[in-house]
């Protein structure tokens, strides 16, 4: 085993995902502890163009038609081969719809330890994970064997993982990828709703605290009075109370409004990562320990069922 | 079509969480446990498949306080068989150990499809599904919000950021990590759950000795240090409304 930190770079349709740069920043923090280099692993087809702004000491690039798009099986096989051959000190994956599909299988296949939901790496190679919807942190040592890590956003800035000069690239011979049991048929573009919430300046967001479908109207009335748009966190969309086009979070939209009014939203990491670009976050939640208050500039623990109707009434009076 | 749904209980995040005296785990004495919401979606997706194509649905979980209620509720929704895994499962179980133990048992059940929640909020060593798939030698795809069985293949909708969907196929048998069922988990009346308690039995199988290798060793757990916290407005609704109106005016949204 050497002391290098490998990063499983993620890209989607020709664009490096933001989490990749955050992973590179974390890798530099860990490499400083271990004394190794930061190595970016990129799997793709004709993807050389995306390598130039990775802040890595070197890039290992695997080119294969079956690696053009994410395929959990092909990606897993490729990375298993690389870990087996190079035996790095650690490999960092995104805690994402890509990284989380493959890291568990790699861990099971190679018998390597896995620490997930890591947010920061502290001195002494301590891994700090964020669990229980952001309410609890757990500290683990970097395991002795090649450590597999999944990284959540929030601990490092993507700019720290962006390089100014192209890193040296080594081409790696692809693994045998015949007989895959998983295939991508096509991408289905996101539903284009009536509004694009990523561009709206005033968002009235509802979460699990809204409790029932009927109560969505409370938020809608306020939004209408204020000239804003209603959006939601995952539980509300999963219940079918609002369409996917209104979803803010990991698999929905990332938003950056002037004002984000979060009503009955706890602020779990999957939601939090998509709203940090807001100018001002205001939170209404009866749980004073809700993580949303750590993101919000202003907050109140008043009950939304009391507060929101009063607020709507007052706005209507002002606007006449 | 034989569908297996592994499920587990997780702490209810609505409750206040605290750390136990060891400093390395949650204090479970007052903790309210609820079904992992993604597992609840996996149960729903299995029942939907049963309704559409006909399937035999087995729910499998490790023993824990409250697990019988979860299993009987699944039966009331339409699950055919309930299995509870007993043994050294009470403390310190990690997903690696669980996946290895469960794989041995699930293998015997000869599954065509395994549906499990894509993650649980207290996972610290990855999620269960991909590890289970590897130990069973099956393909895995996660973050799934739509499942159709088509002969020897399963067609899935995999979610990517920004609302993009990957339309993918996997050959059966396969393991899928469910993000959301095609419909929200159905409600069942308590009376129907009670009826199941009288008519359906829960099978107990021994998970035997667990091998914890691959899972993490926690040095300490703590509540996040807050560097910047919201300026708190009044907790009185009328007063808070006045403050918010002033704030909206200052921010130029009114």
Brief characterization of the structure:
The complex is a heterodimer of chains A (320) and B (254). Chain A has helices at residues 18-34, 72-86, 99-110, 216-226, 234-238, 269-272, 292-295, 304-319, and strands at 5-8, 11-12, 15-16, 38-44, 58-63, 90-94, 114-122, 126-131, 136-141, 147-151, 169-172, 182-188, 202-206, 229-232, 259-263, 280-284, 298-300.
Q: Please identify, by name, the CATH architecture of chain B.
A: 3-Layer(aba) Sandwich
What is the number of E strands of chain B?
13
Question: In angstroms, what separates the terminal alpha carbons of chain B?
Answer: 58 Å
**Major sheet details of chain B:** 9 strands, mixed
Strands in their spatial order, largest beta sheet of chain A: 9-8-7-10-6-1-4-5-11
Q: How many helical stretches of chain A? A: 8
CATH fold assignment of the largest domain in chain A: Rossmann fold
Q: Let me know the CATH homologous superfamily of the largest domain in chain A.
A: HUPs
Strand order of the largest sheet of chain B: 9-8-7-10-6-1-4-5-11
Quick tags:
heterodimer; A: 320 residues; alpha/beta; Rossmann fold; 2 domains; 9-stranded mixed beta sheet; 5-stranded parallel beta sheet; 8 helices; 17 strands; 26% helix; elongated; B: 254 residues; two-stranded antiparallel ribbon; 6 helices; 13 strands
